[in-house]
Backbone:
């Protein structure tokens, strides 16, 4: 009885701060303004010579300067994915107005993930080892490259000493991290959590690997490269960046007079048990994640106003995600607004869910649902409202964000407009 009683006492969880590093802005304000304008952050790859590659474009972060938050020595000891995470996390803490000197550090935790860690560090080390031998490998190779070091570096940078983990579920990483952080607060493992995803994998081996899978768009037109749900879609565009949010237990936020941006009310996580790269064809796994999130929130499908879709621009993802939405929402699917932020910033892999969560919060705050940029015409089975042509201004009370990862990982998180 006592265990059941504890489980029933779930605490409310709110969003109080956000930080972003993206291909169209290196802070939340500039990123969101670019989203509203439909700005595309996709262009020719500048990080390496693509002469031998069929893929020529990506969504790179521009003009990134970690100097506001990191000294030169600290930055040198971190790979780019960790730098993005720390900058976004410190920005989110600043946005939330949290002063660690006034917090119990063991009640402030971190769940920040990366899909692949640093491919660059591994790539560089292998080349150096082959040329000069194993003794010349960077002594910091392992702590630079491993995926959990984003969370570790965020913990060190912020002084958060509570639960510190990371989730690695490929393209569902960011959403799973936020969902697990939501659970940690709801069931009293922490009062405050820094959560989200980070990625920086635009490098020769990263692009070559996804290209070999034929997962990437080979278009050289930035305006028609990342075109989710379009009948001419041909793959996703690699992006990079980080999206980190501060989640907080409601009463804790109230006591310190925090500005509350939105409330997290539901989370669903499932596996397809189907294929290493393709989602389940009937969408049943993703559909269950969505219905689980709605069940936890205690709402009906008709209550959801908008879905920020995984929407990668690959044939299978967009078709099977559409089937999943129809399975989860029934007739209400046709009343939903559905869009894909990836149409502007490409696919940020492990960071995608974190950045898209931020879009969902801003949509609630401003009553603005961005268009799926670049997408022009869908096909027969893709018959939902993907917000084509122009953005939509309407009240957004409930919004869902979906993320689907290689290996069959599905994550759906549900937010609502905050009410007392």
Residues:
């Amino acid at each position: 009885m006592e265990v059941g009683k504890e489980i029933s006492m779930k605490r409310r969880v709110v969003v109080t701060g956000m930080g972003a590093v993206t291909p169209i802005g290196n802070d939340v304000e500039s990123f969101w303004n670019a989203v509203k304008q439909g700005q595309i952050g996709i262009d020719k790859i500048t990080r390496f010579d693509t002469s031998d590659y069929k893929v020529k474009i990506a969504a790179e972060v521009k003009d990134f300067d970690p100097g506001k938050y990191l000294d030169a020595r600290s930055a040198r000891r971190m790979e780019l994915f960790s730098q993005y995470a720390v900058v976004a996390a410190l920005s989110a803490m600043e946005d939330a107005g949290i002063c660690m000197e006034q917090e119990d550090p063991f009640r402030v935790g971190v769940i920040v993930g990366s899909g692949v860690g640093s491919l660059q560090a591994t790539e560089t080390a292998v080349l150096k080892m082959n040329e000069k031998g194993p003794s010349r490998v960077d002594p910091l190779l392992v702590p630079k490259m491993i995926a959990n070091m984003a969370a570790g570096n965020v913990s060190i940078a912020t002084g958060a000493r509570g639960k510190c983990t990371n989730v690695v579920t490929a393209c569902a990483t960011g959403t799973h991290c936020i969902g697990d952080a939501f659970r940690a607060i709801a069931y009293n493992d922490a009062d405050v959590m820094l959560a989200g995803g980070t990625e920086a994998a635009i490098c020769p081996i990263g692009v070559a690997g996804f290209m070999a899978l034929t997962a990437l768009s080979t278009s050289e037109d930035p305006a028609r490269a990342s075109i989710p749900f379009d009948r001419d879609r041909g793959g996703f565009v690699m992006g990079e960046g980080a999206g980190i949010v501060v989640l907080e237990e409601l009463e804790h936020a109230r006591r310190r007079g925090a500005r509350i941006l939105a409330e997290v009310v539901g989370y669903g996580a499932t596996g397809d048990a189907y294929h290493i790269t393709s989602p389940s064809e009937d969408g049943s796994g993703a559909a269950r994640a969505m219905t689980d999130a709605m069940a936890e929130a205690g709402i009906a499908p008709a209550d959801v106003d908008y879905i920020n879709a995984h929407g990668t621009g690959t044939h299978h993802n967009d078709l099977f995600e559409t089937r999943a939405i129809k399975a989860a929402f029934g007739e209400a699917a046709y009343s939903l607004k559905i869009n894909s932020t990836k149409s502007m910033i490409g696919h940020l892999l492990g960071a995608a869910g974190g950045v898209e969560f931020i879009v969902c919060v801003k949509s609630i705050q401003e009553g603005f649902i961005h268009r799926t940029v670049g997408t022009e015409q869908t096909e027969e089975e893709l018959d939902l409202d993907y917000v084509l042509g122009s953005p939509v201004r309407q009240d957004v009370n409930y919004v869902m964000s979906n993320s689907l990862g290689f290996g069959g990982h599905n994550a759906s998180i549900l937010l609502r407009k905050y009410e007392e």
Observations:
- The longest strand covers residues 262-271.
- DSSP finds 14 helices and 14 strands in the chain.
- Residues 1-8 have pLDDT under 50 and may be disordered.
